[in-house]
Design a protein that fits this description.
9-stranded antiparallel β-sheet, 15% helix
């Protein structure tokens, strides 16, 4: 009788160990970290994190920054998509992406390597008023103040994720100047094109590519009338050169909602929309974002 009881107790103990074992192991199978092996400079990419275990205190470290993705549970599985990216001016080489999380009270750490490669960019020649190349001395303090405001807005990393896939096209007009172009203004190389231009006749409604919160609006020397939207978890977009802004700081907007009307304010050659996108503060190609669907990756 005593031996029969011992065998039953031992069997129950082994069953408990089998059920609990994976949660306390260090295997990568505990958490799926789906990330691309390569990413180009100036390109965003999507990382999908998933596990059948309760996922808490999730954090993703990339390029010196940390984002805490919002976790959703579907049919018992914890999932967290997060947008990351490589800045347009980043150096090439191998980077490490690190994911940490607490599973049943134990901290776990997972990593992936991503090879950053150089993207190919073309050149564009434009003619603009001379003051937009060499601004008057009186305007320089204003320009510097605006740069600080815009730098703070683009670096917003809020804990709530408003965006969902796919993203909404902001306007029906044709895509014009592409992201990353080496721009030559009035015969002088002036830098890179850090957004994507769309044809949009004066007064055309401009839409938010995803739900978000307005974090900054204003009239800026180069950008003209523009709107910064925080879409959550480190994704921020900037829509520029508007003739009229139709939202105010702090507003919550839905995907596809009109946020302003197209115009020709700031440094422009005509009415259009300049859309810029930032992930964890890095400037990335908006066209790549607009091509993504829930079943694709950003490779």
């Amino acid at each position: 009788m005593k031996h029969h009881f011992c065998r039953r107790a031992l069997g129950a103990l082994l069953l408990c160990l089998c059920l609990a074992g994976p949660a306390f192991g260090a295997g990568l199978e505990m958490v799926e970290v789906d990330a691309p092996a390569r990413a180009g400079t100036g390109k965003p990419f999507l990382v999908r994190i998933a596990t059948w275990y309760p996922l808490e205190d999730l954090a993703v470290e990339w390029e010196g920054g940390t984002v805490r993705p919002a976790v959703t549970v579907r049919s018992g599985k914890s999932e967290a998509p997060v947008l990351l990216g490589v800045d347009l001016r980043a150096e090439t080489g191998v980077r490490t992406l690190t994911v940490t999380a607490r599973i049943w009270g134990h901290e776990r750490r997972f990593s992936r390597t991503v090879e950053v490669v150089e993207s190919a960019w073309q050149e564009e020649n434009l003619t603009v008023p001379p003051k937009m190349i060499d601004p008057p001395e009186s305007e320089r303090p204003r320009i510097e103040r605006e740069r600080e405001l815009m730098r703070a807005a683009r670096g917003t990393v809020s804990p709530e994720r408003y965006w969902t896939l796919p993203f909404t096209r902001p306007v029906k007009g044709k895509m014009l100047s592409r992201f990353g172009l080496h721009r030559v203004f009035n015969g002088t190389t002036a830098g890179r094109h850090t957004g994507l231009d769309f044809r949009a006749w004066l007064g055309t409604p401009l839409r938010a590519i995803a739900a978000g919160r307005v974090v900054l609006t204003g009239h800026f020397y180069y950008a003209g009338n523009c709107v910064f939207l925080d879409h959550g978890n480190g994704l921020v977009t900037m829509s520029c050169h508007m003739s009229k802004v139709l939202v105010k700081d702090g507003d919550l907007v839905e995907a596809g909602q009109t946020i302003g009307l197209s115009g020709a304010t700031g440094r422009v050659t005509g009415a259009h929309l300049h859309l810029a996108a930032f992930v964890q503060g890095a400037v990335v190609d908006p066209e790549t974002l607009l091509k993504i669907t829930d079943g694709n990756s950003f490779e």
